[in-house]
Amino acid sequence: QVQLVESGGGLVQAGGSLRLSCAASVSMFSINVMGWYRQAPGKQRELVAAITSGGSINYADSVKGRFTISRDNAKNTVYLQMNSLKPEDTGVYYCNYNAVRGVTSYNYWGQGTQVTVSS
User: Fold this and answer.
1) Once rounded to an integer, what is the mean pLDDT over residues 91-102?
2) How big is the CA angle at 92 (ends 74 and 99), to the nearest 5 degrees?
3) Quick one: pLDDT at residue 1?
């Protein structure tokens, strides 16, 4: 079982920055993907950015050039640096840990942290 604890959300004006952190209680598997998803009111949860344990990164088109995802494998922690924030970035941001072992997928979510960007 993996517990994910997020921190760093808050209220910021458009153009501002926030840094989210997510610490995993344990890394069940050395090969895994950690990422950030967000959900705006009335919308489906969407991928923001993800990074593999090997360092491969994927970003949503809407955040490319503004957000940077990184991780510290020794600390089982993933970070999301968000710059040039826009009101449309508002939502609850969820940390995700995913690993596949054989035919079994292990998928865990954090409790979510609110990010609000005012115009």
Assistant:
1) 93
2) 40
3) 83
